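name: query_chain
kind: protein
chains: 1
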Amino acid sequence: MSQRPDTLEHAPLGRESAYPEHYDAGLLYPIPRAANRAPLGIEEGKLPFVGEDEWHAFEVSWLNARGKPLVAVARFRLPADSPRLIESKSWKLYLNGFNQTRFDSRERVIETLERDLAQAAGATVSVELFDVDDAALAVCRLPGECLDELDIEIDDYSPSAEHLKVGEEIVEETLYSHLLKSNCPVTGQPDWGSVLIRYRGSRLDRESLLRYLIGYRQHQDFHEHCVEHIFTDLMAKAKPERLLVLARYVRRGGLDISPWRATPGERPPEPLRLARQ
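structure:
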């Protein structure tokens, strides 16, 4: 992998790029997580959560040993404790490099992906390849109760924990909203998504929670950091015994991302892929 500053200033995102036709691991562009975590009071090595960034790539193709094209859908799982995330456009450019590259087997494709992504992220990355009609890719619905029909008035579109209100009753519930929207920190393009919150602790006021989530509507940040922002705000404000925050973002450029962060012992529901993905 080429040596270069891992900052957004030099990232391919928002720049005109030539799409490669041959494999090049150097196209992957890692970005340290620490800079975005510091404002949330999160120290590397002392993460207040466990979690993963789950990616699906729907434009994966390569040539077999005889030159015949093969296609698949890829699922990648990048651990939240990896020191680096991988910038999405560089990931897409990297995958495009497989299009005219020959591999002896499907296993060799997986081995190559796992090796290159692990080097970029600084941690083990799991890779699965699915046939395009595999039942594992079936569309599901989020579990729990939807907040979106609440009739609320909103005039603040910035993510402020001051919007959150907490009651005294201890509950265990799963809530979700399809009204999550944030913006790319480089291009300003909208990132649409759904967010699920599962917790045990003092009851969250639902109107205040929906108002808080809608507050990300004009916020510019990566998907992963938005989820970490929500997690840390909920932990600070409500202090739940258990908490899971999961976002399922809409596919863009053939890639979707679904980060989740949770207290130790919590896991997201699986399998789970929404119609907008």
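note: Confidence is low (pLDDT under 50) at residues 1-5.
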